[in-house]
């Protein structure tokens, strides 16, 4: 008490740094989207059973990504069903805990998160010291034990370009058995991107090509240092010399393709793939073709970030560079581990565009690249969205008929592809091909195989087939076609007959005397059993 007789009170006020309801309160893990890492605003259940934010699913679909989950599984984004129960639970938790309700996610931020995941999947495993991971070593050892392709030496050449005639019957072949729906047919396995003489914008290249000195010991520890030094030089002439030398070395010495495919050298070559100097760009892309021939290098090249500049070269590079870029992507697409990444990075559209290129080599390599990439479901869906079906159907009557049919057979293996093919009148187009006498045996088999895929699970197929006269053509195939074509033709005819019989049984009725009442028999078979009358 003070001298003036008044009481003085000391009041202490405590302010919590956290709201009482939220203190140390975190949302349950099942409320968080595994992709965006945020509380889910609109949770959906996908085909494989996991729950994600709807926007995350849409972005992954658009980018063709199926990210691995913490448990090692990969989600299937084919179907997305609203998870209303979980959404209600999340909102109730927010209200009870005092947390703000989740807002609709920003698509840009989700796309950024997905692209970050993609980048980590493609590049994170590439060690700085260029050592091969154990998992990669196991993959490569497995391939060595059971190789899936016979990839001949398609190294680019330095000689003057001559006029070449390419026939698929003379190429080394491989049976593609990745997808049962795809006919097991032989096709070429090497790019046709043989480079020209160095008749490029820099005349000095032609002189240098005859004066190249090659390190006689390609296994030396510092063998790439000389190349790296030249390729990093600000002098364009030095860059040309280094690339020409590297190109010739990787063409003639197989062991150099592996020893020189180092992260350091790939990093130096990468910006040269889009150089505005024709000699530099063309030789740089040709080097990538050469080193990609070795199985060990394929995954390493993709993870080094080479594919985006290759795609840029296809879109706007010099004509010869475009040929080499298509061949390089084809070569890289032979590796199963690269297929999804190449599709995600945007190679589909320029490859489709290259099918109409003036260069036969570009058309050939692009078609086979699309075939290998379309062995993956996500790439098939992407191709359908890009309008590949109509493009391919316009090509089945030309020189690319066989290769276009290979891709169409892959597309017919998925629901989206079958729907798009039926919408594009593929049945009539394929029947027209079968009517042509000059069609090859392999193309005939492809046509019948595609029609067999279209005949399953589609109510529209029978009407389209009848309108196109398919039954008559298939009976001719049964008489004159190959064994595989006859087998598929017989199965299609059985499907068509079965539907005709089912339709007849479903509509068969006996009109009762004097009235409008009909008696229908359902499920009637040839023996008259298992019928129900009502």
From TrEMBL:
Pathway: Protein modification; protein ubiquitination. ARM repeats lie at residues 425-469. It comes from the Eukaryota. Signal peptide: none annotated. Keywords: Repeat, Transferase, Ubl conjugation pathway. Residues 26-100 form the U-box domain. SMART domains: ARM, Ubox. Its EC number is 2.3.2.27. It catalyses: S-ubiquitinyl-[E2 ubiquitin-conjugating enzyme]-L-cysteine + [acceptor protein]-L-lysine = [E2 ubiquitin-conjugating enzyme]-L-cysteine + N(6)-ubiquitinyl-[acceptor protein]-L-lysine. GO terms for biological process: protein ubiquitination. One of its GO terms (molecular function) is ubiquitin protein ligase activity. The keyword Flavoprotein does not apply. Pfam families: ARM_PUB, U-box. SUPFAM superfamilies: ARM repeat, RING/U-box. Functions as an E3 ubiquitin ligase. This is RING-type E3 ubiquitin transferase. It comes from Rhododendron griersonianum. The lineage of its organism: Eukaryota, Viridiplantae, Streptophyta, Embryophyta, Tracheophyta.
């Amino acid at each position: 008490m003070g001298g003036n007789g008044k009481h003085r009170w000391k009041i202490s006020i405590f302010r919590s740094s956290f709201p009482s309801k939220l203190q140390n309160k975190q949302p349950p893990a099942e409320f968080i989207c595994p992709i965006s890492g945020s509380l889910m605003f609109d949770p959906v259940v996908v085909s494989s059973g996991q729950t994600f934010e709807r926007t995350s699913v849409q972005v992954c679909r658009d980018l063709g990504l199926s990210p691995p989950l913490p448990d090692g599984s990969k989600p299937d984004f084919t179907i997305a069903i609203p998870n209303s129960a979980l959404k209600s639970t999340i909102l109730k938790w927010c209200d009870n805990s005092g947390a703000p309700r989740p807002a609709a996610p920003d698509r840009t931020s989700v796309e950024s998160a997905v692209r970050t995941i993609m980048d980590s999947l493609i590049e994170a495993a590439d060690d700085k010291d260029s050592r091969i991971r154990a998992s990669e070593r196991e993959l490569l050892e497995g391939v060595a034990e059971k190789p899936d392709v016979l990839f001949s030496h398609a190294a680019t050449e330095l000689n003057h370009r001559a006029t070449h005639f390419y026939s698929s019957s003379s190429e080394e072949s491989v049976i593609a058995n990745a997808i049962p729906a795809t006919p097991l047919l032989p096709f070429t396995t090497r790019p046709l991107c043989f480079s020209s003489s160095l008749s490029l914008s820099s005349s000095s290249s032609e002189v240098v090509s005859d004066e190249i000195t090659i390190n006689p010991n390609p296994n030396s520890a510092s063998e790439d240092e000389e190349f790296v030094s030249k390729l990093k030089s600000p002098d364009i002439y030095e860059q040309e010399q280094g690339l020409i030398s590297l190109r010739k070395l990787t063409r003639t010495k197989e062991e150099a393709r592996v020893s020189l495919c180092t992260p350091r050298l790939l990093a130096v070559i990468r910006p040269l793939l889009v150089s505005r100097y024709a000699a530099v760009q063309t030789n740089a892309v040709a080097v990538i073709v050469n080193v990609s021939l070795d199985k060990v290098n394929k995954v390493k090249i993709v993870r080094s970030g080479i594919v985006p500049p290759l795609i840029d070269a296809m879109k706007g590079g010099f004509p010869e560079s475009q040929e080499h870029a298509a061949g390089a992507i084809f070569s890289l697409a032979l590796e199963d581990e690269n297929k999804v990444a190449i599709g995600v990075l945007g190679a589909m559209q320029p490859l489709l565009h290259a099918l109409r290129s003036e260069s036969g080599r570009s058309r050939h390599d692009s078609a086979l690249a699309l075939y290998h990439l379309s062995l993956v479901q996500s790439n098939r869906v992407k191709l359908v969205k890009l309008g590949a079906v109509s493009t391919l159907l316009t090509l089945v009557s030309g020189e690319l008929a066989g290769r276009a049919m290979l891709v169409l057979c892959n597309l017919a293996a998925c629901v989206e592809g079958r729907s798009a093919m039926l919408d594009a009148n593929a049945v009539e187009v394929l029947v027209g091909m079968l009517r042509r006498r000059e069609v090859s045996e392999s193309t005939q088999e492809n046509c019948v195989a595609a029609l067999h895929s279209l005949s399953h699970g589609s109510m529209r197929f029978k009407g389209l087939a009848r309108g196109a006269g398919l039954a008559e053509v298939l009976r001719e195939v049964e008489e004159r076609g190959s064994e595989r074509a006859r087998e598929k033709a017989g199965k299609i005819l059985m499907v068509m007959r079965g539907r005709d019989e089912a339709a007849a049984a479903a509509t068969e009725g006996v009109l009762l005397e004097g009235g409008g009442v009909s008696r229908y028999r359902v499920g009637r078979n040839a023996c008259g059993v298992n019928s129900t009358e009502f």
